[in-house]
Amino acid sequence: MRERVRRSLVRIGAMASKETQHVLRDPRTLVLALVMPVVMLLLFGFGVSFDLERAPLAVADRDGSDASRALVRALTASSELALAGAADADDADRLFRRGEAVALLVVPEGYAAAVARRERVPLQLLVDGADTVVANQVLTKAEALVRAETRRLGGPDLAGREPPIEVNVWTRYNPAARSALFMVPGLAAYLLAISAVLLTALTVAGEWERGSMEQLFASPVGRLEIVLGKLAPYLVLGMVELQLVVAFGAVVFDVPVRGSPFLVFALGFFFLVGMLGQGLLISVVTKNQLVATQAGALSSLLPSLLLSGMVFPLENMPLPLQTVSRIIPARYLVHGLRGIMLKGNGLDVLWPDLLAVVLFAVAILALATSRFQRRLA
Amino acid sequence: MTAPAIQAVGLSRRFGAFTAVDRVSFEVERGEIFGYLGANGAGKSTTIRMLTGLLAPSDGEARVAGRDVGRDPDAVKAAIGYMSQKFSLYLDLPVRENLRFFGGAYGLSGRDLAARVDEALERADLRDLADATTGGLPGGVRQRLALASALLHRPAVVFLDEPTAGVDPVARRTFWRIIRELSRGGTTVFVTTHYLDEAEYCRRIGLMADGRLVALDTPAALKRAWVPETILAVRGRDLARGQAALAALPGVKAVAPFGAGLHLRVEPGRPSPEDVTAALAAAGAADVSVAVAEPSLEDVFLAVVGRGGAAEVSP
Fold first, then answer.
1. Cα–Cα nearest to B6, from B74, B71, B52, B54
2. How far apart are CA A271 and CA A273, in angstroms?
3. What residues contact A327, with CB distance under 8 A and at least 6 apart?
4. Is B226 buried (19+), middle (13-18) or exposed (0-12) by CB count in 10 A?
5. Are A67 and A111 in contact (CB under 8 A)?
6. Does the model's ipTM exceed the 0.85 cut?
7. Is residue B234 within 8 Å of B280, Cβ to Cβ?
8. Mean local confidence (pLDDT), A317-322
9. Residue A178 pLDDT exceeds 60
10. In angstroms, rounded to a whole number, what is the distance separating the alpha carbons of residues B181 and B163?
């Protein structure tokens, strides 16, 4: 019995060490696994947490009073917003299209008088929503500045309850702008999904194409041993990838890990096992690298990008899509990672997410192993 | 262990309506080199895949190295070596790592593995190439490496599926030297080939046509049984012109190109070599010489396939 276990471990070890050498000898695999996620993280990350620097704000000051000028000064005194010039209230489309301004503040006639009477004054802020990230930040910043101005005018006791200035926001083009911090945990899921599914789909399909799968089947290596030996190196690679993404997120983009890092990796581990299993299933079914690559990319990229809640909020989706998203493991990873990293949630809150990725991993591995017959035809 | 190394009884395999292997039965003794011949698609690889446990037989059974292939495939797999048609080595890895991997796949590890790998490198004459990347090696060297990989765990029975396809003649000769050494050491070798000259190295030969095993014996006995006629080897220039005339001669059973010349299968005694020379000269061939030849396995093969039906003959 012990001898059988020892031999089995030797065979798994032989598979894993061979696979590791494939990876080490092919820089493309390492690039795909380690460099690509970092590059994408930087691209997406800088896209999302682009620090607002002198974003041009146009102002249509219909009041032309000292009070309205004070408001504009307050808004543009910070480094984030810069006065792009005076404009008319109808100019927003033209300004946005030419990129002369990313936001237009409309101060209504009678602003000064209303403020003096401490009445509510509706200000209008039109924001160019084409770049959701910039739009989101301009909005946040402008609201904060207006609130401060309100507080200055109305006094601390009044500001809280009934602000005399009210901001009406009109976001043009893309009303669904989301917070930057939400992107990095989502991105981690997305990157892990793609590279894990693609790597295994490629490597197992390659074994079929090369004919070496037949050679393996003629040896005493069992299918579970093939699966474990093949997946182990990529699991390690995936965990390194996850650490890279989390570390880059923390260092470069100040994305915190407020909860337990252990929970991050536990969640990531089981998610990875599921994704590797998905890649395995694809390659077992297709037995062809080209088809496996396409099926792998489609089945990992699209769902984890579109149905994971990474970019598009699940709550806003039609019910059928919401239902489909429930079987997408990336959904649980994104939700779980956001919970751990941004809110500091613990297992007491996140156990359903962990359970979901574990279930997916077990189910897909079982399916892949059962489809993976050690006989030809 | 006096039981045969390989024993097939009524082994059949169907793919849908197509019968790839049809009720094949044979036995291979321990230490024997058994050649399995046949045209492409005759069922050679399918038979090997059933014997190695890669393919379940539709019917019949087989015992290899004393174990039932259908009931105990893992025991069979541990006892055999297999070299598939494509010699599936990992081309991106060095020679030594390929050997280490296949050794590990058979459960070898540590010092034992290292010793076997060194031994294999020695035997296959690959010591100087141990650290070379496999993909950069010529076909003959890769083939030796593939064989060495299949032998690392010292299997009792080795299955070689067209091991010499696409390998140059010098490399083929070296390869067969290794196979004969193996056989002397007691290893049973089951080899498929369609190089008929190689088949002469085998102690016994099985001939496949359309999924059936149509002949099985030593090369000499096969020649006596299948080519009772005299073989006339004809050489000369412009022989093609005379081919039709020869076929029309009384007593000629078959005319087939053989190397640069022709082989005639004739009834004993007629036509005589002189009749053949005369007929060819009349048809326009020049420098004709005719000699009585020892029948080759190619003659056997052509006779078997000719009788077996419309099997396609590979060059």
1. B52
2. 5
3. A360
4. buried
5. yes
6. no
7. yes
8. 82
9. no
10. 16
pLDDT band of A374, cuts 50, 70, 90: low
Give tens-digit pLDDT for B190-240: 999 878 888 888 999 999 888 899 889 998 888 888 887 788 888 888 888
Query: What residues in B contact A224, CB-CB < 8 Å?
Result: none
Beta-carbon contacts of residue A368 (< 8 Å; ≥ 6 apart):
A227, A277, A278, A280, A281, A284
Rounded Cα gap, residues A290 and A300, in angstroms:
15
Residue type, B247: A
Q: Other C-beta atoms within 10 Å of A227: how many?
A: 22
Contacts of B56 in chain A (CB under 8 A): 375
CA distance A290 to chain B (A): 19
Instruction: Report whether B50 contacts B94 (CB < 8 A).
Output: no
Residue A90 tokens read as: 């109808």
Q: What angle do CA A216, A217, A219 make, to 5 degrees?
A: 65
| Residue A109: half-sphere exposure toward Cβ, Cα within 13 Å | 1
Burial of A36: CB neighbours in 10 Å, binned 0-12, 13-18, 19+: middle
The DSSP bridge partners found for residue B9 are B61
User: B276-302: per-residue pLDDT in tens?
Assistant: 888 888 888 888 888 888 788 888 888
Quick: pLDDT tens for A258-276: 888 899 999 999 999 999 9
Give the whole-angstrom CA distance, residue A15 versus residue B315.
39
pLDDT-derived band at A173 (thresholds 50, 70, 90) equals very low
- Residue in this structure with the two tokens 């299968």, named with its chain if needed: B265
- At A52, list the tokens: 């607002």
pLDDT at B32: 94
CB B54 within 8 A of CB A218: yes
Chain A residues bordering chain B (beta-carbon distance below 8 Å): 7, 10-11, 13-15, 17-18, 21-22, 25-26, 210-222, 375-377
Q: Write down the pLDDT at residue A53.
A: 65
What does pTM read for this prediction? Answer: 0.71
**CB contact at 8 A, A107 and A168:** no
- A-B CB pairs within 8 A amount to 84
pLDDT at A169: 58
Give the side-chain half-sphere CA count within 13 A for A360: 27
